[in-house]
Amino acid sequence: MKRILLYITLSVLVFPVMNSQNTERQIRFDQPVVRTIDSNTIINFNIILDNLDMRTVEMITLTPVIRSNESQMSRDFTAVVIVGGNREKMLKRSINFNMFQFEKEPRMIIEHPKNKKQSIPVELSIPYNEDLRNAELYIDQKINGCACSDEGTSRLLVQSPLLPPVYNPVFNICYITPPVEEVKMRSEKYTAYLNFKVGKYDLLYDFGNNARILKEVDEIISSIKNDANLRITEFQITGYASPEGNYDSNMKLSENRAYAFFNYLEEKYGIDRSILKTDWKGEDWDGLRKIVDSSYIENKNEIISIIDNEYDIATRKNKLRNLAGGSTYRNLLNQYYPSLRRNEYTISYVARPFSVDEAKTTIRTKPQYLSQNEMFLVANTYPKNSREFKETFDIIARYYPDNNIVKANMAAIELEYNNWDEAIRQLEAINDNSAEKWNNLGYAYFQKGDYTKARDYFNRAYQMGLDCAANNIAELQKWENTFSE
Asked: What is the pLDDT of residues 162-191, one digit of tens each?
């Protein structure tokens, strides 16, 4: 096959010269334009020969080389050959008569016209690789004189590094500031297992365990009643009975025993009757089912089946009494029924507002007094990567476990600790449409390498008016630009 070489007798192109390098022969280069397109890095630059001092018999071979100083990556490109007028004629004749051949065919052979301006455009293409960011582009120059005599080699630097370092984006992880809770309504529920004589409802201090139980009640109520941070708004008392005996009698018994506790609280603590509320439930079948279900009692499944499927109370009681010849019922009566005879009382109160400094102390002792907003402000007094910051959010999550704002902020904590998968799982499980959720999903997906999703989520958050998403979009663009410029 006949070889075809490109001879350019005269190429006079004018380009602006930027950051040029001087050599003995006055070969210069303009500033390369480096772009990454479809996984390929394209480099365009011009070899400037305007001031080249070259004899007519000389040949200069310019071989572009890209080489990394930190890895084994190296790439030699086909050379550009520059020849003087006489050498051009001799070279053409030698090639035509197979008297000379290059070790590697050059991309072009160009005759340099003496004392005239000349620029040679060069385009190089190489698959993108991170090593290009610590690589340099240079030209290996080889000069041959008359009769191909070797007159020296040199290395001419074009650009180092070839690509700039990848921009390290600084993204914002966004937290949602909880709304201020104008009135902090709270309630605490307790149980008093008071002892009463059979069929009676008189509350006797010295009967059974009543002295101990009433002491516990006193400690609870006094601690709340005497706390200057609180204002009690309601006492709710609910009476329960165990399910032996007559159903209607048990209903009345639970009512009377609830009122007995009501009267005790009114007399003992001077509680205003207007905030004392009383209710009664009679026989506590739901409570019985719950404690049986969590126990290891014999015939457990049969007991639960009777409770669930026998709707007539009298028939239900007879079936329980006859189960296993009566032994199971005796066990229920002695071991399980006593805990069903009780009064539950719920104390509702309003907690006063706390300053940040006050809240920093209160969150360690009485976190239930604080609103989510107050806890959030405490968290933000600590660095985001600190133990105290995370501990504060753990407390928030414990007291507000079902709140979507809390869930979103806890997912943001996972991002602080580089737990991308867990953050995504938590964020995608939140059933809301907050801008902070979308922003933080964008951050997580960027870290996972899904840059399309990252941009989509950042844009969604920005369109919802989230300021920190605007910063993240700008940072993402700077990062992307390092791959395309």
From this structure: 998 889 999 999 999 999 999 999 999 999
